[in-house]
Amino acid sequence: MSRKPKAAEDENAIDLTPMLDVVFIMLIFFIVVSTFIKEPGIEITKPEATTAELKAASILVGINSKDEIWIAKEKVDERLVKVVLERLFAENPKGWLIIQPDEGASIEAIEKVIEAAKKVGIAKTSLATEEG
């Protein structure tokens, strides 16, 4: 009974190093090209709309059913909304504002955010809704 020499067995083995290199490069590629969704920091039930359009947000403002305003995962007093929007707009002057109101949010709270955005100079403002 003859066994193959050790060198012959090594030649028949599959080298996994190139495959691991390819998997690592693909992982880096997917991390670099993926986009991350910005969240306002609170759970919101969006009102339904018949015409819905998806946009990537630069400044995301959430308004819950208690008319509390949330920007960048922090609750913001309604008197400081303009100041916070100025800071965020200065970081990205080409961006726009997307307001995510809860179904129970009042029109007055939404209007305060829109008025603050106009005073800051944000020309593009959208209202986020669920497609219905």
From TrEMBL:
Record-annotated membrane-spanning stretches: 20-37
Membrane topology: Single-pass membrane protein; Single-pass type II membrane protein
InterPro entries, alphabetized: ExbD
Main location: membrane
Subcellular location: Cell membrane
Alphabetically ordered keywords of this record: Cell membrane, Membrane, Protein transport, Transmembrane, Transmembrane helix, Transport
Family named by the database record: Belongs to the ExbD/TolR family.
Record-given protein name: Biopolymer transporter ExbD
Species this chain originates from: Biformimicrobium ophioploci
